[in-house]
Structure formats: C-alpha cells, structure tokens
Amino acid sequence: MTRYLALFGSINVGGNRLTMADLRYAFEREEFENVETVVASGNVLFDFDERPTDGLEELFAHMMLERFDIDSFVAVRTKGEVRAAVEDNPFVGSGEDKFVHTHFLESQPEPARFEKLLADHAGRGNEKLAMGPRCLYIDYVDGVGNSKLTAAFIERRLGCRGTARNARSLARILSKM
Questions:
Q1: What confidence tens digit (pLDDT) does each residue in 86-115 have?
Q2: Which pick of 52, 62, 173, 174 has the fewest CB atoms within 10 Å?
Q3: What is the DSSP letter of 173?
Q4: 41 with 166: CB under 8 angstroms?
C-alpha cells in the first residue's frame, strides 16, 4: 500500500462547507484505508494500491461533485512528492512559514507560461516565485491576504488549476504521513 495525500481546493471557503468527518466517511465508502484528515481545509491522508495519481484526482473530483455538490480541484501526491515540495521549495527557511506556500498544480506548465506569470506579476507585489515539478513555490512576503497574486491570476497565466498550502501545514501533514 502507498500513502497518499489528497489536497482539495475550495473546501470550507466561498460557501463550500464540508465537515472533515463527512469527507473521511466518503473516502472510507470508496474503500480507501487509514483515512485521516489534517486541518479542516481539505487535506486527506489515505492508503491505497500504488497507481498513477491523475486517476485518483479525477475520482475524488467526481466524488466531491456527486456526494457533496462541490466542484473542487484535487491534487494527489505521494509522501515522496510532499517531502520534495517542502525540501525543494527555495523559500522554506528564508521566509515566514505561514507566508511560504507550495501551489500544487494539475499539470506541469510550459516554461513560457511561467515566464508570462512572472512578467504579468512584475510590479504588482513583493512575492517571490519559483517553478517546481507540478507545483509553484511562492513566498508571499507581505502576507497572502493583501496579495494580488491570487489563485485565479496564477491559473490564467499557467493554464492549469491548483491549490496551495503553506510550509507550516505541509510540515504537519508530512509528519503524519
């Protein structure tokens, strides 16, 4: 069995309220094992036979729509991928953990798309950005709440959806994996 993390976007924000108990139950009904939620923002740890994560992402997105009427992006990563998202983030250790994020993406953007993101964001804020494997590393130097670097802004430039977690949350999730 492989240990996975499912990261749900748009859970418990914008009216998409869902208890973590209900989310755990949905996973258990689908026969996933050792299901555990971490923080009330759509982080689910589970065990399952090793398989490509894109199929799991589609399954969970469908499950959210069918069971809870929530259209959610879902990123699924293995323990090794979560560890890499923390260890390879160039801003971990230099920025505040609550401001340093990994934005998990549904696909790997073309380098030209990342360059467009950088160009379009120039002069809009002090955020620092770096590309990783199926993720974007961000240091929201002045805080996330005041930033113009929103998920919608990122999605339009990179051409793919994503969901972000800060370094503090990822360290907690990784310790539980």
A1: 999 999 999 899 999 999 999 999 999 999
A2: 52
A3: H
A4: no
Contact 70, 39 (CB under 8 A): no
Tokens at 107, concatenated? 């696909």
- Residue 141 tokens read as 């130097």
d(C-alpha 168, C-alpha 177), whole Å: 15
Q: Which CATH superfamily is domain 2-78 in?
A: SP0830-like domains (3.30.70.1280)
Long-range contacts of 143-149 (CB under 8 A, 24+ apart): 143/99, 144/99, 144/101, 148/121, 148/124, 149/121, 149/124, 149/125
- Counting DSSP H helices and E strands in the chain, the numbers are 6, 8
pLDDT (tens digit per residue) in 30-47: 889 999 999 877 899 999
For the chain, the straight-line distance linking the first and the last C-alpha, in angstroms and rounded, comes to 13
Q: Residues 38, 45: contact at Cβ < 8 Å?
A: yes
| Domain boundaries of the chain, sorted by first residue | 2-78, 81-176
Give the long-range contacts of residues 31-38, CB within 8 A, separation 24 or more: 33/1, 34/3, 36/176, 38/169, 38/172, 38/173, 38/176
Measured on CA atoms in the order 93, 94, 99, 105, is the torsion positive or negative? negative
